[in-house]
Amino acid sequence: MDKNFPEEFTQVIKFDPPLYKQRYQFVKDLVEKYKPKKVADLGCADCSLLWMLKFCSCIEVLAGLDICANVMKEKMHTLSPLPADYLQPSERSLTVTLHHGSVAHKDPCMLGFDLVTCIELIEHLEESELKKFPEVVFGFMAPSIVVISTPNSEFNPLLPRVMSYRHPDHKFEWSQAEFQSWALETARCYDYSVEFTGVGHPPTGMEKVGFCTQIGVFVRKYPQTAQPVLSEKPTEAVYKTVFKAVYPSLKDGKYLQNAVISEVIFTAQIIKHRLMPKPEESGDDPERKSKLQPSMDSSSDYLGKLVVEKSMEPFVRGNKLCIPLTTIFAFPKVNRLCGTFEKLCKLIAGKVTLSTDGSAVMVSIEQENEEN
Amino acid sequence: QQLQQLQQLHVPPAVSEEPGGHGRLRGGDTVLQERRPEGLQVSSGLQDLSLRDRGGRRRDFHDLGVNTRQAMVHVQESKTGFSGRMVKLSTNHFRLTSRPQWALYQYHVGYSPEMEARRLRSALLFQHEETIGKTHAFDGSILFLPKKLESRVTELFSRTRNGEDVKITVTLTNELPPTSPTCLQFYNIIFRRLLKMLNLQQIGRNYYNPSDPVSIPNHRLMVWLGFTSSILQYEENIMLCADVSHKVLRGETVLDTMHSIHSQVGEERFRDACAKELIGLIVLTKYNNRTYRIDDIDWDNNPKGTFRKSDGSEMSFVEYYKKQYNIEISDWMQPVLISQMKRRRGNIQGSVALIPELCSLTGLTDKMRSDFNMMKDLAIHTRLPPEQRQRELGRLLNYIQKDDNVQKELRNWGLSFDYKSVSFTGRVVQGEKIYQSGAMFDYNPQFADWTKETRGVPLIRAVPLDSWLLIYTRRNYDVANTLLQSLFKVTPAMGIRMSKPSMIEVDDRTETYLRVLQQRVTPDTNIVFCILSSSRKDKYDAIKKYLCTDCPIPSQCVLARTLSKPQTIMTVATKIALQMNCKMGGELWSVEIPLKQVMIVGIDCYHDTVSGKQSIAGFVASLNQPVTRWFSRCVVQSRGQELVDGIKACLQTALRNWSKWNKCLPSRIFVYRDGVGDGQLNTLVNYEVPQFLDCLKSIGTDYSPRLTVIVVKKRVGARFFAEVGGGFKNPPPGTVVDTVVTRPEWYDFFIVSQTVKNGCVAPTHYNVVYDTSQLKPDHVQRLTYKLCHMYYNWSGIIRVPAPCQYAHKLAFLVGQSIHREPNLVLSDRLYYL
């Protein structure tokens, strides 16, 4: 069920970019416009659309559903977090889940979504499934927006190698009128509005055949109820979860704490090196000295902050350099991570060596013991 | 279409157009789309399969199929030694078991009409899962199944999306026994699948667990724990060799690093410093799971620059990353990193442009490695003692054992593992006696060090310091005097006669040093001693270059800081005195070498990672019977040039020198060859060894010495643990392993020769690839171990035979500082120590 296969590949009419990409771009534009937090892709196949959507920074929950587990599994690893996601956890949280199941069945895991996409899905449904589909998607899931795309059969004569349907697995292909009447009826029934558009422009002079892919965008007319209405009996889980990835995020306390601790210690090290450079760096090396000077200015924003307030100045006590937490909090990165000073104190408590009154970070300034 | 894309310039990652382009697929399907000639060899098919496996460069990392033992009659029966006491060892190898009569079935899959895309080929084939089964491995042309299909040729019919009917012919081409090389590669692929199923992240060739990182905020480092694994045919069993691996990642981007370099060195030296620090490093990109090596920095380009996409249109980087990954590049002035794509087959060559801001650094730079504190902080996490290492390994095995999906996959293939590591007995050969001017010493075998024992004992050959220079800066005047006093204290006991040096004060400029050297060094100068005030490499390089090439005089450079601590100055002075003595042609100690008329050769290579242009082979050969004097040469070769010709010339001059010293030619030659990469063994055996033989032949028709060539490998996956009182300890120095975990097709053995203070000791692997010595394996092992005692810069046993370490030192000095062959006047001294 590889819906991405470029059906127009060998045709006279060639879409650029390929039609499947135009469909995905359409969804992406929609996401940019409405900024949904939770998005589900029904009939997600090899997860290509989900993969594109994971880069959309507004999305926090992504779900995919397909009737064929193998197709999903083939590339589902592309939805896993990357090493870099662990190295620099992002601000937003993101969970990606893949379910194995049918759009003809209801499963509570599909509740609460803002956007549900059904790209080139419905034409693969058997009559019985298609009958249940509106109730599942519009009645049960009831997201704010539903996008449905399907081939426009009126365009088929322009695709020379297409005899009956564009794909052997298609159960039907609708004309514009057929799709629109089905869509309008469905919208009316579940209190949605619908607008029609499409991708894949017809050749000039043949505009009346319409887009190669027709698209209906459904918008729910009634406001979101706090708790999704469970019209009938509470539904039991019928889908099988085949994949779940939780992305590292600064919203997760563990990652936030790690990031803050690491930033605080690193900042303290920067301050220490600025204040007391290693002896060899300031040695009697004329070549070096001259070149070191100007560059210090270019990055003096750190030090500039230090002299603002007297109480913020680091001081030496014994063999330790004490750097007031207020100084460290003034560093933009630390500031951005913690937000408030209290949170900074809370996050580093017990993890970073502090002075007895807890107001300063202590850094050892023992001459480093170097053996060679 | 994609092929074109790869040949052109380059765009960000080659799979840009393919969502989900993952890992090291490197252009994904491209290679597989190329039509293979029909009737191809069995094994080449599997190489394609392994290529799909990430990190798979088309190279046989395990040197499978290089069968050198069969040509050596004297080790056909047995290659094991006998001396020493037994020691109970366990290792990090785990037996792979398969059910009886297990076989892997290999099929060729043909399509009519031809289908080009691999994905389509797979999709069409797996429409018939009820026939083929759920368990399979398919690379687009070759199919592996754990079961035999009913008939030899199976015809299947599928229909494409376009309604085209396709006939698929699945033909059995091979029934592979568990031990076939193809099967071994297959096991490795399957095992990698398992690691992926365990949600480990692949970086490079290994797999790491991202969920539990160790962070070292002081240095902005992060360490991921992971595993290396390989499955191979060992002496009696097919085994999984698994080891704990640590990946050092850095919590900063290349752009962050550039900023901090800028603040350290300033504008003027900024670009040079960036090149030095960054080129050669491996980066991870933010948007896909690939690693790239930084080969160059394009300072004339920036994110606003454009590249040509596969469809021929131009696009800027800023636009591309926004569109493709929704990433906003914040710094539009940053340069662009260039990474060359290496791909041997299909002539696909090109480079990828990367944005510094989107690249995270991995690994350590040379600068970081030389940061003592950083390495110390790292070592706490990465140097696991034996007990802990075994425990971590146990955890991996436990994951494998507990994971249902993994177990199911293994079951489907009919495979399983022994979850307890293999144990066996090794031998600890006796320690050597150290001879020094008539005195004889034993050393404590536990420490493998005789610094204390030989203190105050005259050296075998002490070279007098009659005329020498001591150069220092004004600031180090006191340091210079302290050093001098200390040297006067320690040298008499060694038997070194020392006169007062010419003390020369200089200002700390490279030109001044060079001017002083030009004016003051005379042909009578024994050695030049420079006290440097900083570890600035350019000064060191300039001094070394001048004194190794234009004006060949031994030299000793020491950092003032090293001499500044009163409590260690005597120890330091002792070491320096010994080192200077060696550099001037002195000899320190010896061990008993029972073989007569033997010449020992050591070879190692240095690859310049920064410019990537030069490789240097260091070559050393013993000159005398007690192997205390060494002749040396080196070969500087540019990229792509073969090493062997240069080495042939080295061997010729070494033989000439040996005969000058001994008034005859050696009757035995041992070559210890280090620096042979994974997968290069075949080249070594087929090209380098014949060159040695050729060279010997060219000396004279009546000259046919016995030749032994031993490949030395320090980086091996095997680890040994001595079972002591129910716990695990490092095996003692002198532990020899030549059974169970060695390879049946090789004459090979392991020796643990050194000791380590913390962490696990790494055994060194010795592979005798050519041997007409007729010596028993025991003797070859003993000789090898003896040579590990002969490195004069360390009064203890080292990890490799001394000639390898000397060759390494020489190649390193030339590669790092001198860049051309040093003057041959120095060739009979250890000036490169």
From TrEMBL, chain A:
GO biological process: piRNA processing; RNA methylation; siRNA processing
A single MF term (Gene Ontology): RNA binding
Alphabetical UniProt keywords: Magnesium, Metal-binding, Methyltransferase, RNA-binding, RNA-mediated gene silencing, S-adenosyl-L-methionine, Transferase
EC number: 2.1.1.386
PANTHER family given in the database record: HEN1, SMALL RNA 2'-O-METHYLTRANSFERASE
Cofactor names: Mg(2+)
Similarity comment text for this entry: Belongs to the methyltransferase superfamily. HEN1 family.
Gene3D superfamilies per record: Vaccinia Virus protein VP39
Cited InterPro entries: Hen1, SAM-dependent_MTases_sf
A Gene Ontology cellular-component term: nucleus
Catalytic activity: small RNA 3'-end nucleotide + S-adenosyl-L-methionine = small RNA 3'-end 2'-O-methylnucleotide + S-adenosyl-L-homocysteine + H(+)
Residue segments, region Disordered: 276-299
Lineage: Eukaryota, Metazoa, Chordata, Craniata, Vertebrata
Protein name: Small RNA 2'-O-methyltransferase
From TrEMBL, chain B:
Any one cellular-component term (Gene Ontology): cytoplasm
Listed cofactors: Mg(2+)
Pfam families to which the protein is assigned, alphabetical: ArgoL1 (PF08699), PAZ (PF02170), Piwi (PF02171), Piwi_N (PF23278)
Family: Belongs to the argonaute family. Piwi subfamily.
Compartments in which it is found: Cytoplasm
SMART domains on file: PAZ, Piwi
Spans annotated as Disordered: 1-29
Domain annotation PAZ: ranges: 253-363
Organism: Polioptila caerulea (Blue-grey gnatcatcher)
Keywords assigned by UniProt, alphabetized: Cytoplasm, Developmental protein, Differentiation, Endonuclease, Hydrolase, Magnesium, Meiosis, Metal-binding, Methylation, Nuclease, RNA-binding, RNA-mediated gene silencing, Translation regulation
InterPro entries: ArgoL1, PAZ_dom, PAZ_dom_sf, Piwi, RNaseH-like_sf, RNaseH_sf
Superkingdom of origin: Eukaryota
Cross-referenced PANTHER family: EUKARYOTIC TRANSLATION INITIATION FACTOR 2C
Molecular function in Gene Ontology: endonuclease activity; hydrolase activity; metal ion binding; piRNA binding
Domain Piwi: 527-819
GO BP, sorted A to Z: germ cell development; meiotic cell cycle; regulation of translation; regulatory ncRNA-mediated gene silencing
Name used for this protein in its record: Piwi-like protein 1
